[in-house]
Specification:
GO terms for molecular function: nucleic acid binding; transposase activity. By secondary structure, this protein is α/β, with parallel strands linked by helices. It has two domains: 79 residues, no CATH class; 174 residues, Ribonuclease H-like superfamily/Ribonuclease H (Nucleotidyltransferase, domain 5), CATH 3.30.420.10. The protein is 39% helix and 10% strand. It has 13 helices and five strands. The chain has a five-stranded mixed beta sheet, with helices on both faces. Helix 10 links the parallel strand 4 and strand 5. Helix 5 crosses helix 6 and helix 9 runs parallel beside helix 10. The protein starts with a helix and ends with a helix.
Length: 294
């Protein structure tokens, strides 16, 4: 029997007897409501919307609340997604605050393969075990973000350190490999040698000049299999986050390096689940201090 009725004498309170269909239907409807917990809690909904506006993902919000129980709020990331794509979330257009900015949740598909001859020793299958397991720092992934053709040939090289998820960005005026590699050298050159050990690319021709990284910085380069961009998943994920700041219709030629640095700094200051909700900047800066102390 429901605890609410235990202390009552039902003979004295006959109105409490039986099944109340209106109340039961209302409670059942509340349970079926997408994101119902958030929709029924105004304080939680306000907090979630504020964090989404600060460019946090639903998983980051849920993880942060879980590690800070003193806030008095708790929710799982799937409930947040259900709230975002539910009636109230759609009315508030919360989908535009997500990294993907999609109105509906959908699957993503792999890119079409691009050609570049890669020596056997530089394929991802020959990459040292510790790179794949993320057991050391200094292993990077690189990719090229392109924009609409009407804005010219300018593009952005995005670099992600695999263990800390720390991001660096470099602007290129074309897709010529020499310029792309020069931007990578400019970004990674100031780092201690132990923090620039290897690089993983896809098979785009813009990375054809990869041997210069070995000769100038001692960086070994490896390449994904055809049609397998997920093999450099860290930078693919980082590009998805970056698209909210640099959408496809951005005239990247009008954005200078300082603005790119500010965007990277903002992304590096958001806590990540894979880092125990520490920020990429915290983890990477800690490794720089250790490297310089040795």
């Amino acid at each position: 029997m429901n605890r609410f009725y235990r202390h009552l004498n039902l003979d004295e309170h006959p109105a409490f007897r039986g099944y109340f269909h209106v109340a039961a239907h209302s409670k059942a409807g509340g349970r079926r409501l997408r994101g119902g917990k958030v929709a029924r809690d105004a304080a939680l909904a306000t907090y979630i919307e504020a964090r989404l506006s600060d460019y946090w993902s639903p998983e980051q919000i849920a993880g942060y609340l879980r590690t800070h129980p003193d806030s008095g709020l708790s929710v799982c990331h799937e409930t947040i997604y259900q709230f975002i794509y539910g009636a109230q979330g759609r009315a508030r257009q919360l989908g535009r605050l997500l990294p993907s900015r999609r109105k509906n949740r959908r699957r993503r598909y792999a890119r079409r393969p691009r050609g570049l001859f890669i020596p056997l020793q530089n394929t991802i299958g020959h990459r040292p075990f510790e790179i794949g397991e993320r057991t050391r720092f200094g292993d990077w992934e690189g990719d090229l973000m392109i924009f609409r053709r009407e804005y010219g040939t300018s593009n952005v090289t995005s670099l992600i350190e695999r263990r800390s998820r720390y991001m660096l960005l470099s602007c290129n005026r074309s897709r010529h490999s020499a310029g792309v590699m020069a931007g990578i050298e400019r970004q990674l050159g100031p780092l201690p040698a132990m923090l620039r050990r290897s690089m993983t690319f896809d098979r785009g021709t813009e990375f054809a000049s990869y041997p210069v990284l070995a000769s100038s910085l001692g960086i070994a380069s490896y390449f994904c299999q055809p049609s397998a961009p997920w093999q450099k998943g860290s930078v693919e994920n980082g590009n998805g986050r970056l698209r909210r700041f640099l959408p496809l219709d951005t005239d990247i030629a009008m954005i200078d390096e300082k603005e790119l640095d500010r965007i990277a700094a903002r992304l590096n200051s958001i806590p990540r689940k894979c880092l125990g909700y520490r920020t990429p900047r915290d983890v990477f800066d800690e490794q720089i201090r250790h490297a310089r102390a040795e």
